[in-house]
Queue: 3 jobs
Job 1
Amino acid sequence: MKIAVCVKQVIDTEAVKKLDPASWRLDRSVACVLNPYDEYAVEEALRIKEAHEGEVVAVCMGPEKAEEAVRKALAMGVDSAVLVTDPALAGSDAQGTAYVLAEALRTFEWDLVLFGVRSTDGETGCVPAAVAEQLGVPLLSTLAKVEVQGSTLTVHRETEQGYVAYECPAPAVLSVIKGINEPRYPSMKGIMGAKKKPLDVKDASSLNLDVSRFGQSGAKTRVLSGRSPEPRKAGVKIEDDGTGAQHIADFLASQKLM
Ligand SMILES: Cc1cc2nc3c(=O)[nH]c(=O)nc-3n(C[C@H](O)[C@H](O)[C@H](O)COP(=O)(O)OP(=O)(O)OC[C@H]3O[C@@H](n4cnc5c(N)ncnc54)[C@H](O)[C@@H]3O)c2cc1C
């Protein structure tokens, strides 16, 4: 079974997130990591490969430094990778990103494409569906379980009431939820080996991309303005001299919570 897994580089959760007031784009010059939701997608791809043989290819669109995130996926055990990087891609919205990823996925054969449910920066959660649409294959999203028998997939889709089971023939696009598995940590051998694994770097012209469908100029959404969230107010500290319960009751009443 040949599995593609799409991975995004995002700003480290600990890093300060700043919007560039000129472009309203995130300042990505700070510490970045492999999108935490994509670690579950990489792990699931590796588990399917280990159970059914085959290979796993990571696909990423991002700035040159996104290679760090791709190398992490390779260190976890992914066999090879495709990085689409080109300054012209900057400012792509979810539709633009999906178009570029779909074009990159058309350059090799696969039975499954795995995604995380969302990124930790844009968080639209739209890319997997948009890629499935562009490739004309079924989407099975927010999956809590994936089983493969031959070319038939049996999956559990998480719902508020529990889950729904679906059966679907490959090829298909899947997005997996946090907690579907326990992502492995790359071993030292894996990290060293990742440096030698094939990484195919492509740009807009090598993929023959339509300039009207990506980047700032091809974006269907436009950021009009942005601002940083209000700094969180310090909480009220109560020394409980026996009146603590009354203070809490008064506070809850003042918030109309009781
Ligand atoms: C703060 C902020 C707000 C934004 N708001 C919007 C908006 O409202 N509408 C809009 O169209 N765009 C928006 N964008 C732009 C959008 O984030 C980018 O287009 C992004 O590349 C794709 O969307 P996403 O991060 O929401 O991905 P999601 O759809 O949340 O990601 C789902 C999965 O798709 C895969 N994936 C996503 N991006 C990539 C990538 N570059 N390479 C490989 N795999 C990938 C990963 O597996 C990921 O887990 C916003 C960006 C930021 C930083």
Job 2
Amino acid sequence: MEYKIFGCKTNKYFTDKWAESPILSWKEGVFISSCVVTDKAKSKWVRFAKQKLKTLKKGEKIYLSGCGSLKEGDIDGDFYTIYPELIEFRDQIELLPEDPEDVKQEIETITKTSLKERLQKAVITGTGLHTKKFIVIQTGCDNFCTFCLTVQARGRHKSRTSEDIITEIKEFVASGWKEVVLTGTNLGAWGATSSENIADSKFPELLREILEKTTLSRLRVSSLGVEFVDNELLELFKNPRISAYVHLSIQSGSDNILRSMNRHYNRTKLLQVLTSLYSLQREDGVLINIGADLIVGFPGETDADFQDTLELVWKYGITQLHAFPFSAHHDHYSVPAGKFPNQVDEKIKTERLNILLNEGERVKQGFLQANDGKYFHVLVEGKWIGWTENYIECTPENFELDPGFVFEKKSIAEGIYRYKK
Ligand code: SF4
């Protein structure tokens, strides 16, 4: 079975689960985890699927999951209405739910021994050094931002139990994993009854529980809603076992646009969070690195609104930009903002995106300069590529092993390296 992932860490997590699940072990073909974040993202996996459909052998199929085949977290019954260009291939396509556990009965029919064999085999066939694992702690959302399709695909907000999450982390740590990246559709809402009930979030408690009950070296938080960053969380980001890289789901720096997006925070809250993060002093002295999801060209975005977004990057040192031009989603499912007046011209969107990305690169070089000569605890992945605590990519060209550092037990998975810009 070939596995192809489009989109986010949540897709990566569930693809790993499908790859380890016995359900597909007897099947041949291509597993695709699809993404609908923009029209461009949709056309990418549809094109890939069509290419593969032309080369499938007898008995092989396309197994499709991810946001493209989901509605409310389950298989989308209108899939072929939404993707009519795939109707002619429907006999070669099998739509799968988000999580293999949603098809539990099929697992039980498979003999226990084969399951154990498969899991052992899955671990053994791991090539190179695997130090990082994505773990979904929450799926779905209740916020309905006006540009978002994910909420339609993944359904309503629900959290996994902390017992479940900690058991999974302990298993990984036991098999040598060093870093866990917590992920989800709106992960900051973990433990809340609704993702809109910000005060009800128990996310800081979960982080503390993971630090107390596991020996995990590094815990990283993937994209986090600004509304969930409070003093408790800021305090936790000082902890050396929590990654010094904080990625925020910001989207815009303008109050007008944030309101029009139906975001659950305003510019004042946003600037408070960025100011606190930018000046945060960690116990290990490592400089915090900040990343952000940003959208340019949202309907009604004026040049002044765009300047409000751009200012966030240079003023608060945002180095990692996941920036997209607003997508009105004309193809397949639509989003409320796709029908808003004052749609921004594609040319202007492209110009603004380039300005933003160039500024991000300039700020990143400044951040790397500020880290020049510093020592880092590097987790090595694959062949000599690794990451520092604050998400600086390490290569033999820009890192040298600390001569005083002695690897324990032949494990080269982590070491102390000096960064040279
Ligand atoms: S918070 Fe908004 S953008 Fe994020 S998943 Fe929910 S609706 Fe979508």
Job 3
Amino acid sequence: MLFFLDQHGCAKNQVDGELLIGILNAKGWTRTDIPDEAALIIINSCGFIESAKQESLEAVITARTAYPNARVLLAGCLSERYPEELSETLLEADAFFGNGDLSRFPELLEQMFPAEGTPTARPVLCPPICGVPSGERPELLSFPGSAYVKITEGCDNYCSFCAIPLIRGPLRSRTISDIADECESLVLRGVWEINLIGQDLGSFGLDGGISVPFGEKSPLAQLLARISTLSGDFRIRLLYIHPDNFPRDILPVMVADPRLLPYFDIPFQSGDTTVIHRMNRKGNPEDYLRLVEDIRGAFVESPYGKAVLRSTFLLGFPGETEKSFKKTVSFLTKLRCLWSGAFIWSREEGTASESFGRGASKKTAQKRLDALLEIQRTITPEELSFFVGQHLEVLVEELIPLSDEDRATAERTKMPPTQLALARAWFQAPDVDGSVVLQFDETTRDNRGKPLEPGSVVTAKILNVNGVDVEAVVL
Ligand code: SF4
């Protein structure tokens, strides 16, 4: 039978989607990209903030209307967070599955599509939270050559604005050997870029799963040291480390192995100590700037010549005044991270900030968000100019089809047409950062000697900066 997977939310939820594909394949189901031919449509939802919830709800209603013959299943964080309410109110969905324990999914499948007998009417299965979902991922939903590896699930930080601990539960870490084995098998499958993910990589192993004898390396440093013993040509990127839990002892491990990319995604959220502490975070902008100084200092002599940063800011939080916003602006200006994003606080039930007073008005919060993104839009191209002239390996994501005009010019000039592709260099994470716009022609070969295709790795010269992208030519 055929199923269609409509994926929403973050990379952690994408891994869950890939695991669901593995479970369904093992049960003889096949994924289709054509929802019309699917017997089952899975909305793997996001329940993080208001706008994301709305998007997932609309996806269910749209699927119900457009594909009356299919069974529509709401899975993911929205289903995990509101199973009772939604099973009573979201009549467009035929079933609900929480993400506490994906290994129980076959039970719900059997209720929906019983081998014999009649299907259960609108089954709801939200298993108790346990372990970190892992297992077969026969299909990776990232661009070829890239994959996410989830090393933890859940979170114990309880930032006062965040509902994730309420959805994903307490922190759980996988074992170092389990993660290293998965990385090894992905590399053997031809994956070149592995992005390690979790709610907070800095908390990896702090749930007691990994022993840290006194003076020993932090669990994350132990993990990176273990991955560093793997053979092969691959790259490791760390996504999302809480600034208060940044284990500095990972830096020398990373400097020692250039396959561990000096790319750090550290969401500082605010540049005002009072607001940071109201977010139930311990740090302050001065400490954070010192952390960034240490990170940058560690990579000046490395083959990369620098470390790059991505950060995230939350605006309109209760207690954020015009004065504290100005501090966030000055913090961002000093930080000079290569990439940053921002979002507006929404009152999430069950979080500590639900009972905080009013946040900034929508208009003010939006004005502050626009101002912060405008500052980042000036910083990014300036920081990108560091790479102009460098020869770097880039991962090809998409080939841009030739236009008829290009073909006509090639015909007329008898010269192979210049082709374009979208690729990423080490300083660009998937889905969130700018791209490398790559020039090549039909004679170009990738680092394996093959014609370019998504997943190819090539060495390219960075020619110039174009907004948040860089332009390059394959060498
Ligand atoms: S670190 Fe804070 S913001 Fe991130 S998932 Fe945990 S509670 Fe949420």
